[in-house]
Amino acid sequence: MGSGFVIIFWGIILAFFALVWLGLVALTILGWNKKKAWLKWCAGIPAVIMLLIGVTLGGFIASGILRSMNPKAVFKDTFGVPPAPVVADIKSDVYWFADTGSIYLRFKTTEDDFRKLKLKGLVERTMDKMKEEVPFEIGSKAPVWWTYEYRTDWIYLLRQGSYAKQNGFISETEYFAYDRKNQLAYYLFLGID
Question: Of all helices (H) and strands (E), which one includes residue 16?
């Protein structure tokens, strides 16, 4: 399912929802003007309920977007714990739409704290194995601060596969790397359906 199809599909749903709501509001106003209590109540109550549903869904989507723009929140959502006091300079970039998603996360930390951050299914790999199994990043544009490299002195952890569905995608690649020299940790998640 492509992005264009998703936009059109949800646009049609939203347009239908808005038309029904506007019709109910018009009937409520008509009931007020014609002094027909049954009409204003029968149309007004569903109009108010639909408005509450729309505001709730809009608030839910807005809070998710705002949360994805907060690097500390992205860190907590990714690792299940808030950043430790030694974690500094957290940078994140999150993209989640239609049938693709990506999370780029970079932060400064100690090697001990890097190893304490457990992620389900990640297996340690050598630099050569990482190059062989993940030759390039597909379907996502890396942020300018993403300075990830293949180096022999780095630590690499990897999880990938089709039909993974750990984060809801059919094909997922996730890796976590640590640059010992600069004490920088790099986390990347790429998912596609």
Answer: helix 3-34
